[in-house]
Amino acid sequence: MKIGIISLGGKSSLSIAEACKKYFREVDSLNIRNFEVHLTPEGINLTYGGKSLKDYDCLYIRGSHKYALLQRAITRVLSRKVYNPIDKEGFALGHDKFLTLVELQKQKIAIPSTYYAATTELAKQILEKEVKYPVIMKVPRGTHGKGVMVADSLASGKSILDLLEHFKEPYLIQEFVKTKSVSDIRAIVVGSKVVAAYERRAGNGELRANIHLGGERHKYTLSSDEEKLAVGSAKAIGADICGVDILNSKSPSVIEINLSPGIAAIEEVTGVDVSDTIAEFLHSQTLKFKEKKKRKADKKFNKIIE
User: Fold this and answer.
1) Residue 179's closest CA among 229, 130, 123, 246?
2) Mean of pLDDT values over 122-133
3) Domain limits for position 130
4) pLDDT digits (tens, 9 = 90+) for 48-88
5) CATH number of the domain encompassing residue 215
6) CA-CA distance, 88 to 86, in Å (whole number)?
7) Could you report how far apart the first and last alpha carbons of the chain are, in Å?
8) pLDDT score at 154
């Protein structure tokens, strides 16, 4: 079988591609920047590097939210032909923090109370009349903690708005949930279970636990409620593989989903070979997908000859 790992060529994607060589006959690392979707009256042409994309049995698409529309298009074009661990709608939901929360709330999955403000003026009104401080302020898209700030008063909230205007995006204003030792949990979901998790603790004077902001990592064993939250969240947005961020509080809630989670850090902290786990899962699901596709083709053929 053949698999293509579509990404920006990051360390984690390359690690997964290497692990896939144990399970797939052919493994290609494909740069998402080199894809082109050409729509014609006769149909849709999907090309890579200027040539028609060759046939694959599985495509695992990773990468930045900047390419969400392309990721969605590729998956939509090929959804009936190859196994994709992320549903076409998953890219729209998973790459937007607010849409993620909307879908999770619809599925009755615990989330922090959150306001969406399309304009700076509306955001100021919310800060003045609706919230209790401190609050978290962020933009719908962003990674590594960028565009996420904590306001402990109305004055600081308005100052943060001045900074967030730089992103030229709507604002998310979220209740500040008190956590154990100022931390959150990153859980890697593969299929119907969490395969590895760590706790991220904020550095001194920092209320955001993201590693890129000086946070520390510690191996973590999820409670049954936390594991249900993680697996349920992945299912809600249509992702067989993803990272789920959970607030480590008395009543845990989900704050974010990452469709392209880093692998190296969690492997180092937990000792779990996440890359191999993902590769094995992709192989088994691809086999199931191919068998299901064959049954459908056989059924269609039998109807024709009857």
Assistant:
1) 246
2) 95
3) 114-175
4) 999 999 999 999 999 988 999 999 999 999 999 999 999 99
5) 3.30.470.20
6) 6
7) 32
8) 95
- Res 207 pLDDT > 60: no
Cβ-proximal residues to 303 (8 Å cutoff; 6+ apart), any chain: none
The model's pTM: 0.89
- Which two structure tokens, joined as six digits, stand for 142? 């962003």
Which alpha helices (H) appear in the chain, and where do they start and end? Answer: 11-20, 68-78, 88-94, 97-106, 120-129, 154-164, 224-237, 264-270, 274-305
Q: What one-character DSSP code corresponds to residue 66?
A: G
How many domains are there within the chain? 3
Report the C-alpha gap between 90 and 234 in whole angstroms: 9
CA distances from 11 to 17, 210, 301 (A): 10, 18, 44
**Which letter does DSSP use for residue 86 in this model?**
B
Report d(CA 93, CA 73) in Å as an integer: 14
Buried b (16+ CB within 10 A) or exposed e, 256-267: bbbbbbbbebbb
What CATH number has the domain bearing residue 126? 3.30.1490.20
Could you tell me the two tokens for 119? 């304009």
pLDDT (tens digit per residue) in 210-237: 444 446 889 999 999 999 999 999 999 9
Max alpha carbon distance in the chain (Å)?
Answer: 75
Task: Give the mean pLDDT of the chain.
Answer: 90
